């Protein structure tokens, strides 16, 4: 951040009562910074006049690790970035390497990938909803959300044995065949999920306190959102209809019908509504996908040792939190020369200062919540 | 020397009962608070589709004791930069004020520690408001930004909402014509109607304001967990922290008791002067049997659920609960059945009846009030500070003031037409509705006056 608001003494702002500014350190150990985000807030009373995000507390050098692992060996590492949406991370990485290898996963693998990824999107959004509501003070939605998320995690567990860091996909397709009752489980979840979304909405959507806490809070205009590189629900809530699933279809998304929900004002409430609608759309995609899972192989013909031809590739997918991109350079050996990851959380976090200025301390946590960041991904 | 001993003896003789009661309260209240916390956690669990504490004792029944032991043996940390004396004093002040307020409350016609204190309500409200010093001083003494903000929020909040709560209480006092707690309840008996029904708006204002006063969600900004970590108690740990906790829950009991006394008829049963299905020979009617019947129903439900419990321990537990319910039913039924069986004992049993049934109804009402607190807490998100202030100053305070005014007018009209008891509703209900409409109108005007001063605007409501 070039224009640092805290250390920039020359640009001192006038406080309300002429009192000294208060510097409040939020995090890295704070109940609602969603991990180890540290925010340095410059306060006038309770009004925020400047902020600075300090990140890196969870830096593990994931990109560097990639340079010392073979292509397959690195795949489980990407699960640890956005650890609440591990399946999406894996999909992005596997597809990027497939692009580099110039192979394509078989149709059956693509459809199963799509189902699992959309379930993961719902799970990720559920976690966001629960914690966001908790930040704003509503205790109960958290437990309801976890109840539904549990069902999704059970499906993952049945499919690949892991619940959180799944490593569900392999380069070239899938390791595991879909288990017998996958369709039935997904269908049962989708059927049960519809009334559950209504439950959350009953608790929050028309709630006066919720409206007061989210409407007009953390406004991000479309121009700002684009300029800051915001993607995902953050961008769509500002009114920009941009979804990589539609714009540059990957996996099996071109086969399914779904809408891209957008907001108008780009405030916290719009982002809430966009994500709620996205959960419904993901549910519809899942229902469409289980209708017709093509039969056939689940793994394309790739060798045991992957040696992509020298070259570079950028592949991005629409992860639950935004555009997740992998930029991979191959030098023709078994290890990538460089893997650069474009994490949605990291980029979305850059709009924090823009959104938070002029608001109160209470809004800061609402805005952190609405950004839906995962620090594992921000710091990598 | 002998004179001193003499005076001490005199003093002890005169104040023996209150002193013993005081000791009992100080000793027992932490336990009660512990179990209120357990009940809260169980209710929370029930609303959130989970079980709550289940590990310590059957159904987690010993959890409060485990918690208390944990808190007592925790390391007592005083931050280096803290003002040690104030840091030490603040929680004591907070809990002292809360416990002192209990002294003014009357649980039954004869059970009040400060017997016959004629400024009862004023004493309770005044003393419990002192607790805020503990919060402000504690927040200031910890020398931490979170604590400081929490303390500032707390003081601003209390100042704003105490006004509304006070005005709401004035409404009830208008009907009672006295500050003495026993007399207030007696006045409700004489009228045959609870003041909460006569002045529903005042009761509503008190309900909201009392949630804010006790720093409970959705007004728990001073300790807003997700914003200020723990607000004014961020730096407190172990025993000191538990003192704040004790103060918070004691305050909850106090405001619930005040509301019960003033608006819900204290220890009176519902419909205190209405008789339905009267048992001629003794003058007992259906409502006198209601407590016993309620306990029998609860006990029968537990009994019916017993075979469905998965584990033997839980079966025994349910059986024990059912047994306790039946025992309570027997105790509650005894005073109403004895006069029927042996009319000669009627006079002897009368005070027993008043004590037991009064206590039962009082605890029921306080329990329901606290249950409402918890229900609200688990349902609603938290207000933001400026919204909280706006709600207080732009809605609740005007509403309560207009309400007092109109209720006063309604009472004059009522006395002119000789309206009494339930008939007084004819005058007070329109008055309450008009007050509500005017207040909403003021609120609408206010919002129109400052169009969407949302984002960047400075909060103008620092009281």
Give an account of the 3D structure.
The complex is a heterodimer of chains A (380) and B (463). Chain A contains 15 helices and 8 strands. With 380 residues, chain A is α+β, with helices and mostly antiparallel strands. In chain A, the strands form 3 sheets. In chain A, strands 1-2-3 form a 3-stranded antiparallel sheet. A 3-stranded antiparallel sheet of chain A has the order 6-7-8. The longest helix of chain A is centred in the first third of the chain and has 30 residues, at 107-136. In chain A, 54% of the residues are buried. Residues 1-11 of chain A have low confidence and may be disordered. Chain B has 463 residues and is mainly alpha-helical. Chain B folds into 3 domains: 15-73, no CATH class; 78-268 and 384-449, no CATH class; 286-376. Chain B contains 15 helices and 2 strands. Chain B has a two-stranded antiparallel sheet with strand order 1-2. In chain B, helix 1 packs across helix 13, helix 4 (120-141) runs antiparallel to helix 10 and helix 11 runs antiparallel to helix 12 (312-341). Chains A and B meet through strand 1, helix 4, helix 5, helix 7 and helix 14 of A and helix 5, helix 9, helix 13 and helix 14 of B.
Features:
A: alpha+beta, Cytochrome-c3 Hydrogenase, chain B, 3-stranded antiparallel beta sheet, 8 strands, disordered N terminus, B: mainly alpha, two-stranded antiparallel sheet, 71% helix, 1% strand, disordered C terminus
């Amino acid at each position: 951040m070039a224009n640092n608001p805290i250390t920039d003494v020359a640009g001192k702002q006038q406080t309300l009562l002429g009192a000294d500014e208060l510097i409040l350190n939020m995090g890295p150990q704070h109940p609602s910074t969603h991990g180890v985000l540290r925010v340095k807030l410059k306060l006038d009373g309770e009004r925020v006049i400047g902020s600075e995000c300090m990140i890196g507390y969870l830096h593990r050098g994931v990109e560097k690790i990639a340079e010392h692992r073979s292509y397959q060996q690195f795949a489980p590492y990407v699960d640890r970035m956005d650890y609440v949406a591990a399946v999406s991370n894996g999909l992005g990485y596997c597809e990027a390497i497939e692009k580099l290898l110039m192979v394509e996963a078989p149709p059956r693998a693509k459809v199963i990938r799509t189902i699992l990824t959309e379930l993961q999107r719902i799970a990720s959004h559920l976690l966001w909803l629960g914690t966001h509501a908790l930040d704003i003070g509503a205790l109960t939605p958290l437990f309801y959300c976890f109840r539904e998320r549990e069902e999704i995690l059970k499906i993952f567990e049945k499919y690949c044995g892991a619940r959180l860091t799944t490593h569900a996909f392999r380069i070239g397709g899938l390791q595991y065949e879909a288990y017998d009752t996958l369709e039935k489980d997904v269908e049962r979840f989708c059927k049960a999920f519809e009334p559950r979304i209504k439950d959350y909405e009953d608790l929050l959507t028309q709630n006066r306190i919720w409206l007061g806490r989210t409407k007009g809070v953390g406004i991000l205009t479309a121009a700002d959102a684009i300029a800051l590189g915001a993607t995902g629900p953050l961008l769509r809530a500002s009114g920009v209809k941009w979804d990589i699933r539609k714009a540059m279809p990957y996996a099996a998304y071109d086969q399914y019908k779904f809408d891209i929900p957008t907001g108008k004002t780009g405030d916290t409430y719009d982002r809430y509504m966009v994500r709620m609608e996205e959960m419904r759309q993901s549910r519809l995609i899942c229902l469409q996908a289980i209708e017709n899972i093509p039969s056939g192989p689940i793994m394309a013909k790739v060798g045991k040792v992957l040696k992509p031809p020298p070259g570079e590739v950028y592949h991005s997918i629409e992860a639950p939190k935004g555009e997740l991109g992998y930029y991979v350079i191959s030098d023709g050996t078994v290890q990538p020369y460089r893997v650069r990851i474009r994490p949605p959380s990291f980029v979305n976090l850059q709009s924090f200062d823009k959104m938070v200025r002029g608001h109160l301390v209470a809004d800061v946590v609402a805005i952190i919540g609405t950004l839906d960041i995962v620090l594992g991904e921000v710091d990598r | 020397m002998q004179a001193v001993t003499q005076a001490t003896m005199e003093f002890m003789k005169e104040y023996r009962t209150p002193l013993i009661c005081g000791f009992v309260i100080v000793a027992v209240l932490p336990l009660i608070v512990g179990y209120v916390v357990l009940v809260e956690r169980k209710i929370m669990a029930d609303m959130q589709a989970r079980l709550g504490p289940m590990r310590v004792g059957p159904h987690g029944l010993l959890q409060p004791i485990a918690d208390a032991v944990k808190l007592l043996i925790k390391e007592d940390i005083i931050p280096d930069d803290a003002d040690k004396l104030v840091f030490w004093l603040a929680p004591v002040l907070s809990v002292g004020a809360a416990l002192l307020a209990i002294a003014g409350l009357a649980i039954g016609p004869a059970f009040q520690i400060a017997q016959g204190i004629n400024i009862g309500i004023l004493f309770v409200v005044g003393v419990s408001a002192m607790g805020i010093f503990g919060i402000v001083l504690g927040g200031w003494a910890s020398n931490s930004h979170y604590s400081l903000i929490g303390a500032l929020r707390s003081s601003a909040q209390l100042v704003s909402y105490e006004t509304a709560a006070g005005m709401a209480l004035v409404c009830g006092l208008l009907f009672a014509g006295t500050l003495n707690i026993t007399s207030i309840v007696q006045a409700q008996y004489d009228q045959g109607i609870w003041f909460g029904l006569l002045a529903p708006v005042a009761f509503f204002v008190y309900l909201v304001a009392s949630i804010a006063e006790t720093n409970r969600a959705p007004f728990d900004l001073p300790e807003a967990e997700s914003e200020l970590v723990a607000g004014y108690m961020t730096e407190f740990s172990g025993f000191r922290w538990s003192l704040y906790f004790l103060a918070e829950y004691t305050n909850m009991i106090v405001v619930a008791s005040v509301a019960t006394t003033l608006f819900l008829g204290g220890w009176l049963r519902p419909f205190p002067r209405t008789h339905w299905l009267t048992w001629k020979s003794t003058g007992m009617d259906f409502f006198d049997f209601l407590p016993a019947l309620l306990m029998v129903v609860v006990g029968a439900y537990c009994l019916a659920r017993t075979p469905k419990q998965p584990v033997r321990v839980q079966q025994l537990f349910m059986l024990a609960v059912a047994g306790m319910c039946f025992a309570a039913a027997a105790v509650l039924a005894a005073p109403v059945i004895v006069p029927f069986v042996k009319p000669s004992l009627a006079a002897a049993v009368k005070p027993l009846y008043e004590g037991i049934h009064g206590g039962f109804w009082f605890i029921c009402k306080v329990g329901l009030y606290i249950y409402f607190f918890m229900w609200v807490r688990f349902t609603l998100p938290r207000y933001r500070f400026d919204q909280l202030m706006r709600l207080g100053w732009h809605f609740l305070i005007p509403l309560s003031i207009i309400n007092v005014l109109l209720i006063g007018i309604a009472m004059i009209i009522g006395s002119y037409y000789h309206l009494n008891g339930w008939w007084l509703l004819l005058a007070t209900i329109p008055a309450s509705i008009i007050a509500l409409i005017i207040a909403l109108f003021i609120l609408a005007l206010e919002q129109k006056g400052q169009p969407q001063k949302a984002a960047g605007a400075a909060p103008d409501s620092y009281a």
